[in-house]
């Protein structure tokens, strides 16, 4: 159970308890209020003082203090020194209280599902998610968009990434049966150009676009510079149901607790494995760094044009790989806040934006990367994402790190040599880490300098583009997007795609993560620096320790300028 789901269950129970007080006086109401408050504050990163906790209890001050002291003596609450206030302390739930609270939430979730008839008593609560809406709710078609185009000649303008998904979206809109727009309304550009044009558009008096796509890690910069509009209220009024999105995916829309966009598609980086080769060799699919290397060496045979792994180690993808592998070792690239169930990019302040690159975990990652190069295809240090996918697609490698959006071609492409021969596993873990799968993809946002007269149409377009029907149509066409529960749970959608089922399973098991690439305002500079320094280490231009130290120092300077130190 992740943080978001935990809070949803607890908030539901809290809302049930309030009216029940009118029926009977619950003796332990004060304890409930304090536990609910301290758990929520811990998960959301707010400090809890003795006086705050006493106040929320509803008891007299003296009685509340004694109750808190009793919770401390029983090992449910602990005191920690406050970081910025000498001789002060904050209160936190202990591991024991956290375990008890999570177990109670899980039991409550299962009981609700049983009472409502949605699940049987024999089904484990991790197999479903609390809060996913019922399937089959119709989405109103964009009638106003169609009317405006026909009667007034108004066409919305889109700035999107140049990939297969957005090309399919453009085709859907410009299809004669929909008649919502023409192909010229869509500007599809390379990812680097998308970033530059998005920044340039923000400098115009009036935006040239009504909706723009941004890479998820860019959000902190675009929101911090005021280039995209806060749209939380518009989202709710439009009928977009945030509860239908996996919380880790929906959280990518938020910077400093404000919603700025809608996830239009998600892609997960996983390890693709040739199931036929592994079965033929009697090997199990790898779950750790060392198992990846061991399997890769067993299959690596360059004279036969067969490689252990297809890997993209050019500078830009290498930066992402480093951050992902670091996450697989249980560490983050920045000092972001740890929560009882992982890390959080919410409510970041200066102390949570310091780099953590010059570390022992980073040395372990670099050692793993050196070993990957030994079993990778020739020219891996110059390979980008599409290059490594092409190697795997041709059947030339036993494994490959790949985004699920690109992996769709393994079964969809006519020229694929690996069709129906691929299995997927979450990112293998390193020492001290777990099997996690990082989230990527794009958000649809409305520029803050949009013509106000076009805003209602842009909002309606956003809702339709992110609708269950539109996403389901893309899944049926071979795109493993499925950021919505109602799509990933749809038998018609899951029956068509192994990847949709796989990603849905990762979500149910709480293995989707968005913190490996924190969306801080200096993300693109951080990505560039990491890519350059790690590439220098792998190419032998620098020692590993020197590259990590240089990356740390360069990032410190960038961050100091970004946060005004």
From TrEMBL:
Q: Which UniProt keywords apply?
A: Periplasm, Signal, Transport
Provide the protein's localization. Periplasm
- Cite the HTH marR-type domain residue spans from the record: 31-84
Keyword Signal among UniProt keywords? yes
Gene3D superfamilies to which the protein is assigned, alphabetical? Periplasmic binding protein-like II, Winged helix-like DNA-binding domain superfamily/Winged helix DNA-binding domain
Spell out the InterPro entries in the cross-references: Bact_solute-bd_prot1, HTH_MarR-typ, SBP, WH-like_DNA-bd_sf, WH_DNA-bd_sf
SUPFAM superfamilies, sorted: Periplasmic binding protein-like II, Winged helix' DNA-binding domain
- Name the family: Belongs to the bacterial solute-binding protein 1 family.
Query: Could you tell me what this protein is called?
Result: Extracellular solute-binding protein
Taxonomy-wise, where does this protein's organism fall, top ranks first? Bacteria, Pseudomonadati, Pseudomonadota, Alphaproteobacteria, Hyphomicrobiales
């Amino acid at each position: 159970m992740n943080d978001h789901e935990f809070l949803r269950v607890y908030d539901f129970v809290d809302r049930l308890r309030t009216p029940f007080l009118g029926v009977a006086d619950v003796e332990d109401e004060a304890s409930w209020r304090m536990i609910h408050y301290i758990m929520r504050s811990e998960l959301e990163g707010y400090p809890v003082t003795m006086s705050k906790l006493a106040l929320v209890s509803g008891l007299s001050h003296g009685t509340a203090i004694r109750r808190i002291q009793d919770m401390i003596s029983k090992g449910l609450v602990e005191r920690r020194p406050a970081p910025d206030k000498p001789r002060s302390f904050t209160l936190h739930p202990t591991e024991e209280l956290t375990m008890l609270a999570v177990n109670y939430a899980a039991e409550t979730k299962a009981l609700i599902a049983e009472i409502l008839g949605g699940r049987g008593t024999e089904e484990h609560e991790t197999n479903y998610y609390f809060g996913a809406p019922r399937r089959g709710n119709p989405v109103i078609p964009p009638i106003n968009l169609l009317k405006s185009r026909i009667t007034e000649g108004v066409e919305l303008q889109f700035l999107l990434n140049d990939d297969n998904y957005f090309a399919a979206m453009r085709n859907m809109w410009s299809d004669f049966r929909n008649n919502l727009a023409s192909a010229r309304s869509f500007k599809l550009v390379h990812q680097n150009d998308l970033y530059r044009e998005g920044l340039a558009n923000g400098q115009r008096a009036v935006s040239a676009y009504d909706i723009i796509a941004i890479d998820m890690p860019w959000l902190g910069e675009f929101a911090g510079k005021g280039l995209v509009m806060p749209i939380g209220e518009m989202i709710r009024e439009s009928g977009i149901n945030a509860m239908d999105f996996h919380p880790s995916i929906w959280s990518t829309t938020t910077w400093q607790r404000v919603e700025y966009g809608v996830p239009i598609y998600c892609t997960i980086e996983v390890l693709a494995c040739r199931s036929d080769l592994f079965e033929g060799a009697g090997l199990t699919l790898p779950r750790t760094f060392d198992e990846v290397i061991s399997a890769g060496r067993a299959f690596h045979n360059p004279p036969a044009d067969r490689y252990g792994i297809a890997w993209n180690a050019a500078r830009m993808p290498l930066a992402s790989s480093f951050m992902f592998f670091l996450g697989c070792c249980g560490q983050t690239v920045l000092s972001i806040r740890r929560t009882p169930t992982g890390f959080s990019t919410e409510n970041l302040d200066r102390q949570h934006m310091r780099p953590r690159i010059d570390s022992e975990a980073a040395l372990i990652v670099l050692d793993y990367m050196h070993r990957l190069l030994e079993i990778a295809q020739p020219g891996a240090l110059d390979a980008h994402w599409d290059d490594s996918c092409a190697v795997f697609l041709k059947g030339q490698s036993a494994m490959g790190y790949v985004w699920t959006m690109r992996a769709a071609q393994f079964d969809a492409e006519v020229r694929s040599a690996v069709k129906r021969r691929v299995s997927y596993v979450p990112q293998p873990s390193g020492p001290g880490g777990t099997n996690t799968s990082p989230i990527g993809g794009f958000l649809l946002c409305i520029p803050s300098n949009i013509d106000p007269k076009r805003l209602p149409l842009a909002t309606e377009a956003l809702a339709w583009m992110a609708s269950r029907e539109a996403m389901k149509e893309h899944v049926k066409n071979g795109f493993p997007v499925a950021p919505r529960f109602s799509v990933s749970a749809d038998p018609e959608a899951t029956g068509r795609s192994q990847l949709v089922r796989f990603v849905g399973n990762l979500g149910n098991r709480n293995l989707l993560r968005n913190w490996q690439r924190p969306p801080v305002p200096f993300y693109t500079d951080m990505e560039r620096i990491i890519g350059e320094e790690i590439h220098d280490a792998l190419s032998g231009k620098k020692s590993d320790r020197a590259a990590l130290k240089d990356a740390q120092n360069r990032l410190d300077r960038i961050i100091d300028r970004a946060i005004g130190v």
